[in-house]
Amino acid sequence: MASTISILFFLASFLLAPLPLQSADPDPLQDFCVGLINATESVNGFPCKPASAVTANDFSSDVIAYEGNTNNPFGSNVTGANAMAFPGLNTLGVSMNRIDLAPGGLNPPHSHPRATELDIVIEGTVMIGFVTTGNVFYSKVLRKGELFVVPRGLVHFERNIGQGKALIFAAFNGQMPGTVSIAPTLFGAKPPIPDAVLSKAFQVGTGVVDEIKSKFSS
Ligand SMILES: *[C@@H]1O[C@H](CO)[C@@H](O)[C@H](O)[C@H]1NC(C)=O
Ligand SMILES: *[C@@H]1O[C@H](CO)[C@@H](O)[C@H](O)[C@H]1NC(C)=O
User: Fold this and answer.
1) In angstroms, rounded to a whole number, what is the distance separating the alpha carbons of residues 134 and 128?
2) Can you tell me whether residue 163 is helix, strand or coil?
3) Cis peptide leading into residue 191 (ω within 30°)
4) Domain boundaries, the chain
5) Rounded to the nearest whole angstrom, what is the distance from the C-alpha of residue 38 to the centroid of ligand 2?
6) Residue 15: pLDDT above 60?
7) Which residues contact 83 (CB under 8 A, 6 or more apart)?
8) Alpha carbon nearest to ligand 2 atom 11, residue
9) pLDDT, tens only, 107-141
10) Ligand 2 centroid to 175 CA: how many Å?
């Protein structure tokens, strides 16, 4: 019996191998589904606002029209126009971020578990890089109008290496890309990840772990 099952799995893996992977948001089942972001029910996405209540304003947003305040330790500010901030995007499989960077500013290493990111530099000179699952680091210095793509899920960063401000717009093939910020995820989780775990993982003493935790605890 067990061997019959493993033979079936073996055959199934060959049959399924040539199928394209489903790697984007699910296809919509209607023209639009403007998200009701405070609905008490939740689905995979947001439930739809009644079509009779939808207006042109639901398909427009100014959330990324304004510069973010970069007066913080990283010198960066990310503003998201995802389905939560711009409910008209619900079920449509796209979204955008605005990334403002002060001179020397860094959007620290992070990943987007649910979307590939396509960056366009609008202003300034930036270094963008990502690391593969095989620990290969790919990076480029980009100027106005140039593009850089970050494959879904990979850890990446954006850094302003120019003299003035930098501005990047990032497009995503997902309505809610999600962000895993490496340092806050590990050192600012609530409740905290035990020091013993982080001390062993990073091969440093717990004093170093506590120092980093103190910067990400709020
Ligand atoms: C839904 O939440 C937003 C803030 O996220 C709030 O401004 C709005 O008033 C809420 N709408 C309803 C119907 O509760
Ligand atoms: C980003 O900018 C907005 C708008 O100025 C501001 O409210 C917010 O606190 C800033 N975030 C950070 C992390 O500095």
Assistant:
1) 18
2) coil
3) yes
4) 51-179, 188-215
5) 23
6) no
7) 35, 37, 45, 46, 89, 90, 95, 175, 176
8) 77
9) 999 999 999 999 999 999 999 999 999 999 999 99
10) 22
**Coil, strand or helix: which one is 40?**
coil
C-alpha of residue 184 to centroid of ligand 2, in Å: 17
Cα gap 153→137, rounded to integer Å: 14
Which helix (H) or strand (E) covers residue 197, if one does? helix 195-202
8 Å CB contact between 68 and 88 = no
Domain 51-179: which topology? Jelly Rolls (2.60.120)
Nearest CA to ligand 2 atom 12: 77
The amino acid at residue 37 is I
Q: Any idea which ligand is nearest the CA of 35?
A: 1
pLDDT digits (tens, 9 = 90+) for 48-78: 999 999 999 999 999 999 999 999 999 999 9
Please give the Cα distance from 49 to 56 (Å, whole number).
13
Report yes or no: 49 and 34 within 8 Å, Cβ to Cβ.
yes
Cβ–Cβ < 8 Å for 111, 170 = no
Please answer whether residues 213 and 183 qualify as being in contact, where contact means their C-beta atoms are separated by less than 8 angstroms: no
Mutate to test the pocket of ligand 2, among 67, 69, 71, 76 (most ligand atoms within 8 A of CB): 69
Residue that has been written with the tokens 């990400």 in this structure: 216
